[in-house]
Amino acid sequence: MAKGMLIVLSGPSGVGKGTVRQELTRRNSGQFVYSVSMTTRKKRPGEVEGVDYFFTSVAEFKHAVQSNQMLEYNQYVGHYYGTPRQYVEKTINQGKDIFLEIDVGGAIQVKEKMPEGVFIFLTPPDLKALRMRITGRGTDSATVIDRRMAQAVNEINLMKEYDYAVVNDQVTKAADRIEKIIESEHLKVKRVMKDYEKVLGVKHDYETNHR
Amino acid sequence: MAKGMLIVLSGPSGVGKGTVRQELTRRNSGQFVYSVSMTTRKKRPGEVEGVDYFFTSVAEFKHAVQSNQMLEYNQYVGHYYGTPRQYVEKTINQGKDIFLEIDVGGAIQVKEKMPEGVFIFLTPPDLKALRMRITGRGTDSATVIDRRMAQAVNEINLMKEYDYAVVNDQVTKAADRIEKIIESEHLKVKRVMKDYEKVLGVKHDYETNHR
Question: Model pTM greater than 0.95?
Answer without folding.
Answer: no
